[in-house]
Amino acid sequence: MKAHQTTDHARISAIENLIEQLTLDEKLLLLGGTPHDLPDRDADLFGVERIGLPRLRFADGPVGVHWWAKASTCYPALICLAASFDEATALLYGQAVGTDCRAAGVHVLLAPGVNLYRSPLCGRNFEYMGEDPELAGKLSAAYIRGVQEKGVSATVKHFAANNQEYNRYHIGSDVDERTLREVYLRPFELAVKEGKTGCVMTSYNPINGVHASENKALITDILREDWKFEGVVMSDWVSTYSTAQTLNAGLDLEMPWANWLKPEKIKPLLASGVVSEETINQRIRNRLKLMERFGWLDPEHNQKDESLPARNHETEAAALEVARRGIVLLKNDKDFLPRKPEQTKKIAILGHHAGEPILCGGGSAYTSPHESITLVEAIRNTYGEHSEIEYYPCVHSWHANETHTASAFLTESGEPGLQARYYDNKQFAGEPVYETVDQHINLNPETRYLNPALCTAAFSAIWTGQIEITDAAAYDFYMYAVDGRMSATLNGEPLFDSLHDTYRKTRELSAGRYELTVSFRQTHGPCTHALFGYEQTAHAFMGREAALEAIRDCDLVVIGTGYVKEVEGESHDRPFEMDERLNQLIVDAAKINPNIAVALYAGGACDISPWIDRVKGVLNLWYPGQNGTVAAAEILAGITNPSGKLPFTWEERPEDRGSFNCYHDDDGDQRVAYTDGVFCGYRHFDRCAIAPRYPFGHGLSYTTFVYENLRLTADTIEAGEEAVLKFDLVNTGSNAGSETALVFVGDKEASVERPPKELKAIQRICLEPGERKTVQTTLPARAFAFWNIQQKDWCIETGEFVISIGPDAQTQPLQATLNVL
Question: How high is the pLDDT of residue 4?
């Protein structure tokens, strides 16, 4: 102990010595990231070479390292990881991503995300870990441990109550203290206390009226003082709104560069005493402690591990293993699956999704791999020696990328293009700062930085002109807007408004010219993207009729369907309804051949009611990463036994979810009150006795399991003690498989309204056919507690608690009563 104290003292002295060597200007430089337009930019954070303080590299995450590397392993979405319900899988995932970070010389990974699934509409649900705080917290802690084992700091995000992408910069989350503590902060607490995360990233949204980056109650009172967090707190990109309040609240870094935390704004505050130099020192101290913890202050340390290959087959193997454990078999009518290759003579694969690499949702998570495998390729590799296989794209649900470059526009004078006017404000006010003729509308981060007029922190643009229709037909108009609001009119009539509309609109048009106006107003952020185009609706269909004829005598029809990254991703929410053309393809195919297995790409629940009763099998692939389609093909063929489970409740209708009436800003005051309180997810379905389409924890297997013989070590415990329980799990089927047992706790009678049951432990168990295992689980004292708003602390009341165990939130064959004194 004495030596340890000496070591700690030496570390503290070394850090304080570094702080003393820094000038004030150097300290202030360290409070923000490096601007992207620096000519010699090779890092995200400044260093001070004079005293041996290195620059630091960051990288997104969470599904791959796509900064400082042209390509990297692209892993399945974190929602797929959550579906494994397995801390060991999360550890494996984190270790692999951490390895990729070291190959690219990355110090800080901007992951994992643990914002809870309040609604299926949230565009970033695929990046998160489901609706349950305990599940999200346990898996994120394991992921973090894996990353940090490799000498890379993880960053848990987005702190806190960031549960929608719709107008995410402006709409605040109003959450009562108990709900915040029990539900939305719980994953962060576990990431800090059990994962020991090095960094925390604040969110864009205000919480109870105060922006996260300047929220002292969250950053200092809860994170640092209550949870004893000693790492670095950074802002999300372009999400600081003040100088003094931000510094005094406890934010250490403004990212991606200093706008508010820059010398010319801080020095007057130091001179007036509004901000103290000790406050600045503490911000630097937190950074130096992080660097010391991971060895980055060692002059001999090299974060880029030259022994690691740019393409790492070991991390690619880890990505495949995560998909094997996370893909969910939603439906298997009369054991239609698996279809053994030697028994499957003819296969038809339908759908654009099956033939394209649908790897990830959109936004900052998207990672470009060295190589990817489509579902068509994976099925051919698995079945090719035995089966005749044909592929038909049928219908393209997102044709905008191809459409916008082929779209023809005319100026008022009849020349090709659209008259473009750019303004240095968000209101189209005053004279344009730049005018030109744009041949197409595709404003993206790369082109924006090439135009000085668009490098301002706020801009807007208007395009005007005409389109000429030569053939009377149905036409699809595509619009894509990131970090901005986009709208369009055709002959003066509204065509699109990105604040309310989905990505595509169809119009029947006669031959002639139509006046077109498109406007874009930046709302926030440096990654602004705007795209607009049109085409004849018929162009979206590719061999559909031939496909329907070809499937008549097939033993297996696989239809790839779902969402794409432009529809489901960061900065915008997505519809609950799938594309009607994709739905109709499945319906029409099922009329011809019932032997259909749907491969669904989605980050959350969606409306599958048009076709779910018409098909025999459904695999939820999530977004499977670069090679997760191999796992899907293995599951179809019976090579891999599916074991994934839904980490959220799949509702029949959006109205069935507790957040339905408290998700959007219906009254326009830019605040959303979480009136569903602690009754999120399955808790609401339990409380209101609403039957979901699929319950939390649903997932089918090619074998069967029986739960038996629950026993408690003691039927009575003192408040504050842990409870130990055992039960038996038996594989009663003919295949080896993995089952995840969910352990719930419910308080029979309490002084506050509590959910009927809450998940408090998970156990994933692998069993051979006929094998029986005894499983032991320990429930800590917190498993029985709620947050007492009067006491400002966790409270355990005496009485009876029901412990229930089973495969999902609707099915708990084992129950026992525990008395707490």
Answer: 42
State the amino acid at position 779 in one-letter form: L
Q: Which residues contact 743 (CB under 8 A, 6 or more apart)?
A: 725, 759, 760, 761, 762, 763, 777, 779, 803, 804, 805
Residue 613 pLDDT = 98
d(CA 432, CA 462): 10
- The structure tokens listed for 413 are 């004078």
Q: Do 432 and 286 share a structural domain?
A: no
- Distance in angstroms (rounded) separating the CA atoms of residues 438 and 448: 13
Instruction: Please give the structure tokens belonging to residue 572.
Output: 């915008």
pLDDT at 435: 92
Q: With pLDDT > 90 as the criterion, what percentage of the chain qualifies? A: 87
pLDDT at 522: 84
Q: Is residue 20 part of a domain?
A: yes
- Measured CA to CA in angstroms, residue 458 lies from 270, 424, 436, 454, 463 at distances of 29, 6, 19, 8, 17
Expressed as residue numbers, the domain containing 364 is: 324-398+541-635
| Whether residue 560 sits in one domain with residue 523 | no
Within-domain flag for 673: no
Give phi and psi for 658, each to the nearest 5. -60, -25
**Contacting residues for 493 by C-beta, under 8 A, at least 6 apart:** none
**pLDDT tens by residue, 309-326:** 999 999 999 999 999 999
Stretches where the chain sits below pLDDT 70 are 1-7, 445-457, 501, 525-527
Q: Which long-range contacts (CB under 8 A, 24 or more apart) does 613-616 make?
A: 614/586, 614/587, 614/590, 615/331, 615/333, 615/559, 615/586, 615/590, 616/331, 616/332, 616/333, 616/334, 616/336, 616/337
In order, the DSSP letters of 788-814 are ETTTTEEE---EEEEEEEESSSS---E
The predicted pLDDT at position 457 comes to 61
Structure tokens at 43: 């890092």
Sign of torsion, CA 780 785 791 797?
A: negative
Most distant CA atoms of the chain, gap in Å:
87
Residues known to be catalytic = 236
Query: Is the CB of residue 553 less than 8 Å from the CB of residue 347?
Result: no
